[in-house]
Amino acid sequence: MRQLLISDGTTAAGAYTAGLLAPGAVDVAGLSADGHTPLVGGETIADYSAIRLIQGTAAGRANVVSPWIDGSSVSRWTGQSYAAQTAQSSTLTFATVPSAGGTEMSIKVIDRAIGQAQFQRASASYTTVAGSLTVHRVTIGLFSALTGVALGDVVAGQNEAIPGMDRVVAQVNSTDAGAAATIITLTGNTFDSDPYSVLASFQSASENLNGDFGTTLTVASTGTPTLGNGGDGNLILELEASLQGMGRGYYDRVQLPVAPPAYAVAATTYDLYKLGFGNAAPGSIRGVDNYREIIIASPAGDADGAVFEGKINPWLNSCPGSFAAVVL
Questions:
Q1: Cα 38 to Cα 312: distance, rounded to the nearest angstrom
Q2: What is the mean pLDDT of residues 40-46?
Q3: Which pTM was predicted?
């Protein structure tokens, strides 16, 4: 079983009203004769043999709680500070002048992010013109053909989507007047919460740009595409939706369907804490049903994350596994 608790950065200490935790707060409570008692920083397994994690919800709603976590059952305690997604980027640098007019030069961009051949692709061709044999004209001519922007409307630094390519944009750093750089930069998108969005991965190909007709093309790729560490708000939004049935709601016997509440915010970046423990129930399958993971997402760098760490780290360090403190 996997469970996701999401904090909005609200300090949990003393934030209960009539037993309900403040909306957006995440807290740690110990098992006591009263049911549960919020932990104070520094308390250990000697104070509470078991804990549970609690998330405050909208005002008046019941808390979201984890199962009770016995100290002897904890198997994993880790954390990850937020790391941003990285987009793929390719720099196409054109050099030297064309040797003659009437030569067709072409480039092609091929999307390799998802699916199989035939891959989504876009092609652009430019035929050199006698009397205008400059590397700048080749650069903006190919950019114009690739993006559909009229040749006379191209300006240095211009960013344009590539028709037929959902995940790649092009930027040109040249003008017909002769800007210093003769570069087209291709940049892929990162993942967002659109259900059809994926992290871009692409490649490029060219023809008649190897120097045989004067102009050469050099391709330099940077920024291997990655999803970071999963703390991007879009990824947390997707994880939350997947744990709730991909956001399609669920059915009960009163009203059909009922949309589950959502707490992840796409614009927020999160630090992640991960707690693994055994929690078998009667009739469970050993090795399948008896392992649980709790993921806590807390706004990256927020001071209230330290409040949470101050409560849970001493308790976990005192458990039989002597888990090292996670400080993000």
A1: 11
A2: 94
A3: 0.83
CB of 90 within 8 A of CB of 204?
yes
Q: Write the CA distances from 178 to 135, 137, 156, 231, integer angstroms.
A: 9, 8, 10, 43
CA distances from 131 to 87, 102, 159, 216, 297 (A): 39, 11, 28, 19, 61
3-state secondary structure of 98: coil
3-state secondary structure of 73: helix
Distances (CA, A) of 78 to 41, 74, 113, 184, 248: 19, 12, 30, 42, 31
| Run of H or E residues at 145 | helix 135-147
Contact between 158 and 184 (Cβ < 8 Å): no
Alpha carbons 325 and 328: distance in angstroms, whole number = 10
- CA–CA dist 86, 223 (Å, integer): 6
Residue-level pLDDT at 113: 80
- Token code pair at residue 228: 């970071």
- What are the E-state strand segments in 189-309? 202-207, 216-222, 270-278, 291-299
Length of the chain: 328
